[in-house]
Amino acid sequence: MKRLWTPAWIARHVAMVVLVTGFLGLGWWQVSRAAAGNAISWGYAVEWPIFAGFVVFVWWREVRHTLRGPAAPADAPGEASTAAGTRPADAPEAATRPVVRRPVRVARVAAAADGGEDGDLAAYNHYLQWLNDNPGAKPGDYPG
User: Fold this and answer.
1) At what angle are helices 7-35 and 41-68 packed, to 10 degrees?
2) Under 8 Å between Cβ of 41 and 31
3) Contacts with 42 (C-beta within 8 Å, 6 or more apart), sequence order
4) Of 63, 126, 67, 73, nearest to 99 (Cα)?
5) Which residue, among 31, 17, 24, has the nearest Cα to 51 in the 3D structure?
6) Conformational region of residue 137, where left means phi above 0, alpha means psi within -120 to 50, and beta covers everything else
7) In whole angstroms, how far apart are CA 4 and each of 55, 67, 72?
């Protein structure tokens, strides 16, 4: 239970209480507006408690996740891994869950040029450069 009393978790607990209280207060305010004759407020009167319930759901899920503890370590490099879909009888259930890992960044390497430039590509690039240099010109005005 000490894990739930760190500064970060205290801030989460306070945020949950503030949000739930605020959402339920807004729901009650919408009920009073709806009773005064504002028909659209009935929808909001239902919506705000749903938001409060969602906050409680997310908070409870995070509490359970924190209390469950860290994931089991992966197999040591020297140990043989079991076949996919099978596990030893004494292995815990958590060991079969997939592990989420950080994405790997791959450096992009420029493709090596053949050395010779394609004549059609050079002509097209020259045409594009001419169009850029002459913004008012029409494509039919191109001298090349």
Assistant:
1) 160
2) yes
3) 30, 34
4) 73
5) 24
6) beta
7) 17, 8, 20
CA distance 54 to 64: 15
Give tens-digit pLDDT for 13-57: 999 999 999 999 999 999 999 999 999 999 999 999 999 999 999
- How far is 41 from 55, CA to CA, in rounded Å? 21
Q: Residue 18: is it exposed, middle or buried by C-beta count within 10 angstroms (0-12/13-18/19+)?
A: exposed
Q: Give the pLDDT confidence of 54-98 residue by residue, as tens digits.
A: 999 999 999 999 998 765 555 545 444 454 555 555 555 556 777
Q: Which tokens go with 101?
A: 């890992």
Alpha carbons 31 and 5: distance in angstroms, whole number? 36
Question: Which residue has 């705000």 as its token pair?
Answer: 48
Region of 32 (left: φ > 0; alpha: ψ -120 to 50; beta: rest) is alpha
